Amino acid sequence: MLDQIHKMNKIIAFLIMVLPVFTSCKESDTPADNTPTNLTLTADILPDNSGTVHFAAAATNATVYTFDLGNGKTEISTTGLLTYVDSTSGIYTVTVVAKSATGQTASKILVVNVNVVLNLVWSDEFDTPGAPNTTKWGYDLGAGGWGNNEAEYYTNRLDNAVVADGMLKIILKKEDYSGSAYTSARLLSKNKYSFKYGKIEVRAKLPAGGGTWPAIWMLGDNISSAGWPACGEIDIMEHVGNQLNKIYGTLHHPGHSGGNGDGATVMISNVTSEFHKYAFEWSSTTMRFYVDDVPFYTFTNTASLPFNQNFFIILNVAVGGNFGGTIDPAFTTGTMEVDYVRVYQ
After folding, report:
1. How far is CA 322 from the centre of its chain?
2. Yes or no: domain 37-114 corresponds to CATH 2.60.40.10
3. How many CB atoms within 10 Å of residue 266?
4. pTM of the prediction?
5. Active site residue 27
6. How many separate helices (H) and strands (E) can be counted in the chain?
7. Would you tell me how many other CB atoms lie within 10 Å of the CB of residue 313?
8. Where are the beta strands (DSSP E) in 224-332?
9. Does the active-site annotation cover 150?
10. What are the sequence ranges of the domains in the chain?
11. What are residue 172's DSSP bridge partners?
């Protein structure tokens, strides 16, 4: 009996020594609560209107900070400090997520108002009467529908494109010409001027009449080699007379071409009787369409899209076709008047 008691005491003593070891192992498998605390986020917007913002985030226990800049872009900082330049004005909701070494997170939101002042780098004010300036504009010529079953024949005649009264006038006419029932003009800055990023603004008054289809748009410089829609297309303004006062802003690119483009519409008043400003602002992150300084569509640009190269400008008035629709039999003539074209960067 004494021998059994002695053995039992040895077992109890062994368990007393081993138990703290097991307890210690169990506790070490549970990570400590390292959730970041006291997270702060500040933004210092430089007063030079360059779009430069210095962000500063700080939190106890944080080892890395992820900034969602509210424009489709994300940046990571191990210090909590980030300098970012956005070339597009706007109000952005910025979110920072602080993360600890053991994976716990905390987040903070800050709204910043970025104001970017751009400089005029190219323009045509259409102040010299006569033919459009040949150092700035060339012409697409001919008929054939232009991929949209349009009815016009584009010419370079003064009858269809002329500068007068401080305006460029692109004139659509009902007349028999080289087998077509209508004539018009399509001016383009291809091989004369193109640009990447910035803002283009065009002040214009649009033609009236069912079937009319004026457009202010751009194509990528590489259209000859890449083709369409791989080159990208930016439709700053399109209007069809059969949908009076409805302005289209559209982006065409692979997978989103033709009727599947990315864009939006806005209704405004008196597009055929009053001048309005049609604008497009563009950076590596953001693409934004405006009418009369009011944005109506914003799209996130990425490196995988074709909108990170130079684009040239096109001004034209088409008639009929897939988008212009039925032409009013009573239509005889209509004019798109352009007060100016200005590019800012």
Report:
1. 25
2. yes
3. 17
4. 0.78
5. no
6. 3, 25
7. 26
8. 233-238, 246-252, 262-267, 276-282, 286-291, 294-300, 311-319
9. no
10. 37-114, 120-344
11. 334
CATH number assigned to the domain with residue range 120-344, chosen from the 4 options 3.40.50.2300, 3.30.450.20, 3.90.226.10, 2.60.120.200: 2.60.120.200
pLDDT of residue 28: 46
For 34, the 3-state DSSP assignment is coil
The residue behind tokens 């269809």 is 160
Whether 338 contacts 239, CB under 8 Å: no
Q: Going from the first residue of the chain to its last (345 residues), give the mean pLDDT of each consecutive group of 10, the final group possibly shorter.
A: 50 46 45 88 91 95 95 91 85 95 96 91 98 98 96 98 98 98 98 97 98 98 98 98 98 95 98 98 94 96 96 98 98 98 97
The catalytic position among 238, 274, 281, 337 is 238
Residue 8, amino acid: M
Tokens in use for 162?
Answer: 């002329």
Could you tell me which residues come within 8 angstroms of residue 47 by beta carbon, excluding any fewer than 6 positions away? Answer: none
Identify which of 95, 23, 97 has the alpha carbon closest to the alpha carbon of residue 59.
Answer: 97
For residue 171, the cross-strand partners are: 335
Catalytic choice (150, 152, 201, 233): 233
- The pLDDT value recorded for residue 64 is 97
